[in-house]
Every structure is written in C-alpha cells, then in structure tokens.
Amino acid sequence: MTTELQHSPAAQNPAIPAFPAATVLGYPRIGRRRELKRAVEAYWAGRTDVHELEATAADLRRTTVARLVDLGLPADDASVPSSFSYYDQVLDAATTVGAVPERFAHLLSDAGELDLAGYFTVARGVGDLPPLEMTKWFDTNYHYLVPEIGPGTAFRLASDRPVREFREALEAGVTTRPVIVGPVTFLLLSKAADGAPSGFSPLSRLADLLPVYADLLRALAAAGAPWVQLDEPALVTDNLDVPRDEVLAALRTAYATLATDLRSPDRPAVLVAAPFGDLGDALPVLADSDVEAVALDLVRGTAPTEPVPGLGSTTLVGGVVDGHNVWRADLSARLEVLERLEGLGAAAVSVGTSTSLQHVPHDVADEPDLDPGLAGWLAFADQKVTEVVTLATGLREGREAVHAELLAASDAVASRASAVGVEVAAVRERTAALRTTDFHRAPAQERRAAQEARLGLPALPTTTIGSFPQTVEIRRARAAHAKGDLSLEAYEDAMRAEIARVVALQEEIGLDVLVHGEAERNDMVQYFAELLDGFAVTRNGWVQSYGSRCTRPSILWGDVSRPAPMTVRWAEHAQSLTEKPVKGMLTGPVTIMAWSFVRDDVPLGETARQIGLALRDEITDLEAAGIAIIQVDEPALRELLPLRRADQAEYLDWSVGSFTLATAGVRPDTQIHTHLCYSEFGEVIGAIDALDADVTSIEAARSRMEILPDLAGSGFSRGVGPGVYDIHSPRVPSQTEVTELLELAVKSVDPRLLWVNPDCGLKTRGYDETVPSLEHLVAAAAAVRETL
Ligand code: GLN
Ligand code: ZN
Question: Locate the Cobalamin-independent methionine synthase MetE N-terminal domain: which residues (predicted)?
C-alpha cells in the first residue's frame, strides 16, 4: 500500500512545482476587437499572406499573455494558460496527433505535417472534399470540429505548435501552461472515419494514441513547461455512445500511461480539467492516479461532500468563478465553497474558473453603452481573472486581506437583487397564475380540418424558412441607421421596400406560403432582445461561435415582458401586398435563452415561461392582424439538452412547456409552424411531437430524407417540411434532384402532411443562387403533385 507521503508529488520529485494559487482554464482568443477573425478572413480572401496572419496571431498571443499578467496572474508559475487556436481546439488536437482524414492526405508535407493553409482546408473543406463535421461543444454555443478516426489512423506527433507557443511566451518572460484537449475526450468526441467497420469505436484506438500524447508531454517538458492542462470535459456527461465503465477504464489507462509510466522530469506536471459539470465517479479514478492536479467545475457541478480516497497527493483547482456566464460572483459565497473544498483532504486547493473563459466576452470596460447599474453586476473575462486572483488571496491570507473586495462584490449582488426590473410583480403574477389549459390547444385533427378550410393550400405546399438574402444594401442601411446617418423613417421605408420586393419575388416564383423575409432583423435573437424588457445588448461582447464566426449574445438580466408588438407591422405590411398567406416569423423562447447569457438568480423555467408569455401576446396580435400561419423557430431546442440524462426530463418539461405556452393561445384555424435546423432527432423526437406544432420543418437534404422513415415509425403524424435542398452551400440544386428527394419523401410520409421547403433560412445566400433554387423547388413540387 502506498502511503500518502509516497504518493505526494513533492515526495516523488522535489522538482515538481506547486500548482499556481489562481488560474483561468482558458481565455478568449478571437481578440477584443476580433483581430483574429479579421486576420484569418483577410488571409482566406487572399488579401494577406500567411506571414502576416502569423504575425497578427503572435501579436494577439503576446497581448493576451501580457494582459493576464497585468490582471494579477504571476508570470513565472504557469498560471497563465496558453490556449490560443487559429480555428478550434479540437482540430488543433487532431492535427497535433496526426489525425487528418484520408481525403486530406495530399495536404501533408513529406514529413507528414500540415501547414496553416492545410489546417484551414481541413476545417472548411475544398471543392468536393467536405470539411470535418461541426458540432456543439457541450452546453455552450461554441462549435468544434469532429475528428474522424478509423482503424488505420496513423497517430504521430505531427505538430510542435504547443511547444512553439510555449517557447514564444517564455521568450517574452512568461511561463505559460499549455492547454490541450485530453486523450479520452479527444477520442470520445471523434466519430468513426468513413469506411471503418460497423461498430468501430474511436476509443478502441486509445493505446495507439497515448504514446503520441506522451511524446508531446516530453517535448513540452524539454522546452521547460512546468505544467500542462489536459481538458477532459467528456467525463462530465453520460450522454455518450460509450458505456460509462468503458469511459472510466479508458481514463484509468490514459493517466497511468501519461502520469505514472511517464514521470517528471520527462513530463510537465499534469492538470486534468473537467469543465461543464460533475466528474462523478471519474473523480475517484483521477484521485487514485498520479495526475498532480484536477480542476472541478463548481458552478455547474458541486464538490464532493466526503473526503475522496487518494486525493492526498492531488491539488484541487476549485472552479468557482463561472466561465460560461457573465455575472459578477458573490465572492464571499465562492470563498465558502473553496473553504469546504479544503476539507476534502486534497494536497492543496487552488482557485480557478469553472470553464475556459472563451465563452464570455473580454471586458465589461469595453461596453460604454451599458447602463452603469447593469455593468456593475457583470464580469467578463478580464473581471473574472481579477475575481480568481482575489479569491486566491482570500483563501491563502484570510478574508481580512480581501475585505474591501468581498464587500464590493456583496454590494453588487445586493444591488442586483433589489434593482428595478429584476423582479417585476406583474410578470411574476402572470406566470404564477398559469393553468394547464394555457399550455394546450384543441386536438390536432380538429385543427387540421379548420386550417385546411381556411387556407385552401394545394398538396405539397411550398414555402421558405423565413429569411431572404441579407443584401449589402440592407446591411448598409442598418449600419447607417445605427450611426445616426439614416433616420428611423428612412430606414423603415427601406425595410418596407425590401419586404415588397421579396413578396413580389415569391409570387413570381410561385411559392404558396410567403414570408416577409426578415430584412429588419440583425439577428434572430438580438432583434427580439432589443424589443423585450429584461434584456440588454452589448457593443463589443463578441464570443467565438466557430472558426472566425462570433456572436454577440444578449444579456437577459430581468423579468421579461413585451412593452409593444415586435413584428406585427412588418407581417401586416407583407400580407397587405398579397392574396397568398404570409407566415409570421418569431424566435422561440428556448432559442432566445440558448443564444443569450441567462440569469443565474431565477430558475430557467421561470424565464422560459416569461418569454413564452411575451411571445404569446405577439402571436395573439399577429392572429388579430389576419396572419393565418405563424412560425416559431426553435433550432436550439436540442442544443440545451442537459449533459446528464437524469436532468433531461425536467429540461424538456420547461422547454417544451414554454413553446406550447407561446403558441397555445391561438384559434384552431391558425396554423403554427416550427423550424429545427438539424435532423438528428433521435433523443428528442418525443419532445418535438410534444411541441404540438401543426407543421415542423427540419434539415433533411444532406441525409437524403433519412429522418422521414424514423419520424413516421415513431408515430409522428403532424405536418412536416423536410428540407429539399442544403442552403449551407452556394450550389443550386437541379429540379431533378429536388424531385428525387420529394419522391423519396412521399414514400415515407403521407403526402397530405408533406410540405416543401429548403433546409433553413436564406439570409447567408445570394439572390443568384436563391432564385433558381426556389424555382427548381417549386417546379419539382408541381411535378410530384401531378403524380399523387
Ligand atoms: N427563420 C429563421 C431564418 O430563416 C430561421 C433561422 C434558423 O433556423 N437558424 O433565418
Ligand atoms: Zn434552420
């Protein structure tokens, strides 16, 4: 039996440095003015060369490191993370371990390396070669690229970028801590490469992958890195295809190889970080390993209440500062959590963020337009660094040492709790008074008959998902109006003219159900956030969504209500121009929440019902204005699904409930549509049925309508609009192609339930592609209609 003393890192090797007292798990890398986005896009467009791009990126890394040191992270103890990426951290891990799919093999140099141009090609595809698939990073709005692993993937250390970036900072005087996606998470997030035998699991390649991680750790140690951070967020979810005991076995093997077989000084000390939830039964496994430190998410997760065997040689990094949301922390309460952590018998306790800060904007000081009261309640990345530094001082030196800071934080929390608008009696009374009947419409069959009678649509009605191309002119008008160069009247006239143009175009093309085209919307969430009470929007609060794409999430700070109609006059205007039905267009409560920073002071379900009621009022007004079809988009419904299966039922209850609350106030002859951007329904198929929408449009073209038999098999008997062409690519589908997909569709869906539409909105497309694509869609629908 090993005693704690033998196990302790210091006892093994006095050279192993202590983990820093305070750290953050990662920092935004896009730049506070989106410098990286601009540089990368200029390079893609051929306006700059790779040297310029690399120089800008190096500048950005230098500024970031210097900023973190300024904010109080010491320059010499590995508390500053080295977490830069040109595109995505999972792609970085893939290219570092040589996991480049076969179809991109021609991009590799003779030495088997991928240059920056090749790296971007894997991320974005080229010609007929599709890029790696993109999917959501746990419960954030960040998207990572999915590595493709097969039995033949030849793992090898194929990049020294982590080492180079470590050296670069060291030369500037800062000892950083390289951050890399850990091996278990890397394989769990990968998918089987094309051509892999059925049932192949990427995790089966662990033994081949680990030597490459070992090589990387050796190289980092040789460069002088005292610590490395391996991110293992996949440990906090049980929503994986791999059974939990296999995950735990892989974890045991991985860190026996990387932390026991490989020893200091051949490797840096290892921090395993587990953001986004509880480690659960993975914590004892890590405690029992020779990993020197483990970072816990104590915002989403909770600390164990009893000492964990084996922890005596492990440093715990208490992730008490929320890396995933923007609220200023109640430092006294956070300090209590850290003090309790000290009772668990760990070798030491340090202070950290719950997740990387890449999910929040840079700096509240960059928001001159925010109400100063609200600004005082917020902490973006830079403020969070200060919070961890303060907490670390408090933990080491006692509360007295940070008395003033604790007081200021408590004051901010108190002022937020009592501020006007945070809790609005009229809003709370309304949600409290809701009854079951408020969530239910008349039976679907009855509605269908009433809607058929009212709308008189042909079989296979054609429509679009809502947005039409956002042209340069539209963007220019919006920018000019925002700057004050274009009056509100002139701006609105321009939008009305655009709507008229889009309506006329749809009539010409021959679509059956028209839309107004969403010209007036800067964004499908921010547009509503600007019009609802309880939200604020930022000027520079950009957060990376994927690659060079950023979003500016709104901040949901108070009780939500609708001071005035939001979309009615646009819909009314469009409807006044045509005899055909115009579909009203709204964003659903779950999507509004998913793409905003949400409150941490009320249950999500309460906010969802408040937004549901605000939308219900809007829908009532649309109906009164003569709009017969109203679409409520919920592309984020599946995105917010909790990472632990045990939490999913409660989530689906409030999320589905907020949608039905929004939509159940209409007459039976008003048709409710919803749109979901994806086709992997699997785990939420029941929830989609429970939305009780009359028509659901989904993505289906890329999978060639694969979803439809499943949908029919599960008893789904509502209207459905499987997308008949992929709007993510500029390609114009031929009429034959669309006809073939529709012929497939009528085989598995009752043609009376079938709608014909593209996969998603057209806002990112140009008119050159949109017009012929829609013409082909209409012609294909007419052709298949003939055969019914
Ligand atoms: N109605 C929106 C549009 O057409 C839907 C966008 C989405 O699904 N993300 O743009
Ligand atoms: Zn969509």
Answer: 22-342
* pLDDT tens for each residue of 682-727: 778 889 999 999 999 999 888 888 888 888 888 889 999 999 998 8
Q: Is 776 labelled as part of a ligand binding site?
A: no
Backbone φ, ψ for residue 544 (5° rounding): -65, 130
Q: Which amino acid is at 266?
A: D
Q: How far is CA 272 from CA 16, 254, 258, 750, 766, in A?
A: 16, 11, 11, 52, 46
Give CA–CA dist 585/628, Å, rounded: 12
What are the two backbone dihedrals, phi and then psi, of residue 596, each rounded to the nearest 5 degrees?
-125, 165
User: Phi then psi for 293, rounded to 5 degrees?
Assistant: -150, 150
For atom 4 of ligand 1, the residue with the nearest CA is 761
Q: 201: helix, coil or strand?
A: coil
Does 7 have pLDDT greater than 50? no
Q: What is the pLDDT of residues 152-202, one digit of tens each?
A: 999 999 999 999 999 999 999 999 999 999 999 999 999 999 999 999 999
Complex confidence, ipTM: 0.99
CA of 467 to the centre of ligand 1 (A): 6
Specify which residues 145 forms β-bridges with. 134
Of 89, 64, 167, which Cα lies nearest the Cα of 385? 64
The DSSP secondary-structure symbol of 257 reads: I
* Spatial contact of 499 and 505, defined as CB atoms under 8 Å apart: no
CA 467/CA 465 separation, integer angstroms:
6
Residues 6+ away with beta carbon under 8 Å from 180: 89, 92, 93, 96, 162, 216, 228, 229, 230, 231
Ligand (nearest to CA of 464): 1
Helix ranges (H only) for 369-483 are: 372-375, 381-397, 403-418, 425-432, 444-455, 472-483
DSSP 581: P
Report the pocket of ligand 1 as residue ranges, CB < 6 Å.
465-467, 518, 524, 585, 633, 635, 675, 677, 760-761, 763
